[in-house]
Structures are given as C-alpha cells and as structure tokens.
Specification:
This protein is of the alpha/beta class. The protein has one domain. It has a 4-stranded mixed beta sheet with strand order 1-2-6-5, with helices on one face. Strands 3-4 form a two-stranded antiparallel ribbon. The chain is globular and about 50 Å long.
C-alpha cells in the first residue's frame, strides 16, 4: 500500500502524546501476557468501551508533543515513516467520511487521533498500553498504541502490512461514524454470534471496507492492489473471536463473542469494499 508522494498530509488530526505514560508496553494482565491480555486487547482493539470502569487517574495527555508537524508533510513521508503513514490513513479516512456526509446533506465532525504509550487519560477512563487501539465515544477520540501492530503479527498471527494498519484505523473511525449516526450504543450489552455487539463491530468492519474501496479517490493513496486487500482481510481474520478463542482457550464459544468470527469479519469488510456504499453495511437487519 503506497501513498501518493505528492499528497499533502494534515498532522493536526493526530495528537502524539507518546512518552508521557509510565513505562513501556507491559503484558502483566491475565498472567503475564496470556489469554487475559489477548482478550482485553481484542475487546478494545476494535470497539471496546472503557466507560464506566473504575480506574485511577492517569497522566496528562494534553496536546503539545511532537515532531509530526515537522516530519509528516507529504505522502512521500508516509511511505518512509510509520508515524506519517498513520497520519495519512487518518487523513484519508476522514476525507472520505467528510465527503460522504456532505453528499447526504450531513456534517461530519472530525475525530482526533491520539498516539500513546504507557497510559493515557481518556473520556472513557485511563487506558494503558495493553488495551491497544480503541475509540472513546465520550471524547470522540481514537486512541492508538502503535506497538499493537507488532502484537498483531507476533501474538495474533497476522502477516501485517500497510493496509492491515489502515484497516484498524478505518475500523475505529467506523465506530466514530456509528457514534455520529447514533448507532454505536446499540451494540452494548448483547454478546453472541448474532448479538448486537457483534453486529456493531461487523458494521465498523464494513465501513472500513467502504473506505478502502474509495481510498484512492481521497487523494492520499495510490491504487489498492489485491495483495493490499489480502493483508487487510488477514488482519480481520486474526482478530476473529473464534480464532482468538481456539488459540488461547482451546475451544470456541460463540455465545461469548463480541466482535464476530474471522469469516464474518472478512465477509463484511469485503461487502463494504465491493459495494462501496455505507448503505450496504446494515448488519443490524441482515444475516451475518
């Protein structure tokens, strides 16, 4: 996945507060990095909510850190630097949804992305590096610990790749789109293979696919190849509930699913990508 080297990036959409947390990426949850860590990461990776949890006060995550504004100016920078690549994906995803909302007579409210390590205060509570990427509907920010992309490969078995990262970013912004439409809260409280939680997550996967189908038209990316799409599908499969449960529990329990199976996640990303239309993403009234 390559960016147009002449594309102009907008790093103001990303707030880098890395280094303000305590320590590095610890994995003490769930007995030193076992099942507890992985399920927590996956729960929050693609849509979990920290709201309502009892957490201690975290560290200041106010703006004002970094070199993104100096280092990330063009698509050429995104092709050379992972931080700039994330900026590029955030820019592309938000450009698509801003245009899409405008076409339907609505106004898109941009969401800030926060890069963090250690721990960070959010409107949903204090998050630590163990939770990975997530969207907080209270402050309407996306939070990314970029070290998760290493875990996606080394702990969850994905092959990685640029569009695998783009898929994760686009999925989190899919939750932001749901939030703006008033649909995000409908996923809470019901687990199971066809429950509301799974339907909410699969819709965000579908929205990620819709963006991927239009990514080139946003002006940031070169044409997407089938290999790029395969890397996104591989990442979607890696975070399927059935695959996680089989790997770390040795059995699959669909009644406890919150995000959907590998096949479901791949199917709905593909649906969004092939249809290129958010109206095709009505997972709440469709067979999964």
């Amino acid at each position: 996945m390559a960016f147009d080297p002449n594309a102009r990036l907008d790093p103001s959409q990303v707030n880098d507060v890395r280094g303000r947390g305590l320590g590095g990426r610890t994995i003490a949850i769930g007995g030193g990095g076992g099942l507890g860590l992985v399920l927590l990461v996956v729960y929050l990776l693609l849509g979990g909510d920290l709201g309502g949890s009892s957490v201690a006060p975290g560290l200041d995550s106010a703006p004002g850190n970094t070199n993104l504004s100096q280092e990330c100016s063009t698509g050429a920078d995104a092709n050379q630097n992972e931080d700039c690549r994330i900026v590029g994906y955030v820019n592309s995803v938000q450009k698509y949804w801003s245009d899409e909302f405008s076409r339907s007579g609505r106004r898109y409210q941009p969401a800030q992305t926060v890069l963090y390590t250690g721990q960070v205060d959010t409107g949903c509570g204090t998050a630590t590096a163990e939770v990975g990427p997530f969207y907080c509907p209270v402050d309407k920010h996306v939070y990314l610990d970029l070290g998760f992309f290493d875990d996606l490969r080394t702990k969850l078995g994905a092959r990685g790749g640029s569009l695998a990262e783009g898929y994760v970013v686009a999925h989190e912004y899919g939750h932001h789109v749901q939030d703006l439409a008033g649909n995000l809260s409908s996923g809470s409280g019901q687990t199971g293979a066809t429950g509301q939680s799974v339907r909410t997550e699969l819709q965000a996967d579908c929205y990620a696919g819709v963006w991927a189908g239009h990514a080139t038209s946003t002006g940031f990316l070169k044409p997407i190849t089938q290999d790029d799409i395969n890397s996104a599908l591989d990442a979607a499969a890696a975070v399927g509930d059935d695959r996680i449960q089989q790997e770390f529990q040795g059995r699959v329990n669909p009644e406890s699913w919150t995000h959907g199976s590998s096949a479901q996640r791949q199917r709905w990303f593909t649906t969004g990508y092939q249809k290129g239309d958010a109206s095709a993403c009505d997972t709440f009234h469709s067979a999964l």
